[in-house]
């Protein structure tokens, strides 16, 4: 069992345990980058249909890429305590990682006073959900899996990278 640290403090909670938005006003802006991924498991035939670009609703990956970018831009509207930040770039890429498995990688960047982890996570998540929406008529058994942060750079805490 992991030992509890008495120094752990949640930044989005005040001394009385109430939710609050963190004040980042005194922080110096730094270049920040975050990378997140999500996986979508589906029937191999569904992935072939997506790759062919001939799905009934159109180019699935192009629409999902735009949805991911839009999600990153609107993260502060979706996650209650996130700050509105000036994104300098958002990229959403797709990779077939096996028969019926699609990996979505989202990268968000800004120069600002707070990180872009949530923007990258929202981009990966919404891109996966958009793929699902566009081809659910042919494969309702799809599953969005393992949405997670891979790495982040910038800010006071410095770089972090997922191991394994």
What would you say this structure looks like, in words?
With 164 residues, the chain is of the alpha+beta class. The protein is 28% helix and 30% strand. The chain is built from 4 helices and 5 strands, in the order E-H-H-H-E-E-H-E-E. The chain has helices spanning 44-52, 60-73, 75-78, 117-135, and strands spanning 30-41, 87-98, 101-112, 143-153, 160-161. Strands 2-3-1-4-5 form a 5-stranded antiparallel sheet, with helices on one face. Helix 2 (60-73) packs antiparallel against helix 4. The longest helix is centred in the C-terminal third of the chain and has 19 residues, at 117-135. The protein is elongated.
* Structural class designation: alpha+beta
Uncertain regions spanning at least 5 consecutive residues: none
Fraction of residues in β-strands: 25-35%
List the secondary-structure elements in sequence, H or E: EHHHEEHEE
Distance between the termini: 21 Å
Proportion in helices: 25-40%
Largest sheet: 5 strands, antiparallel
Number of beta strands: 5
Mass-distribution shape:
elongated
The spatial strand order of the largest sheet comes to 2-3-1-4-5
Q: What average pLDDT do the residues reach? A: 90
Radius of gyration: 18 Å
What structural keywords apply?
single chain, alpha+beta, 5-stranded antiparallel beta sheet, elongated
């Amino acid at each position: 069992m992991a030992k509890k640290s008495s120094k752990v403090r949640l930044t989005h909670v005040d001394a009385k345990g109430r939710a609050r938005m963190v004040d980042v006003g005194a922080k110096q802006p730094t270049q920040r980058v975050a990378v997140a991924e999500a996986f979508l498991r589906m029937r191999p035939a569904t992935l072939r249909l997506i790759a062919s670009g001939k799905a009934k609703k159109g180019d699935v990956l192009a629409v999902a890429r735009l949805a991911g970018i839009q999600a990153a831009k609107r993260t502060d509207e979706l996650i209650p305590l996130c700050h509105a930040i000036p994104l300098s770039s958002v990229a959403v890429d797709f990779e077939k990682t096996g028969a019926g498995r699609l990996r979505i990688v989202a990268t968000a960047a800004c120069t600002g006073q707070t990180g872009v982890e949530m923007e990258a996570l929202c981009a990966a998540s919404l891109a996966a959900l958009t793929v699902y929406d566009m081809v659910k008529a042919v494969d309702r058994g799809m599953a969005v899996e393992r949405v997670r942060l891979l790495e982040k750079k910038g800010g006071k805490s410095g770089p972090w990278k997922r191991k394994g």
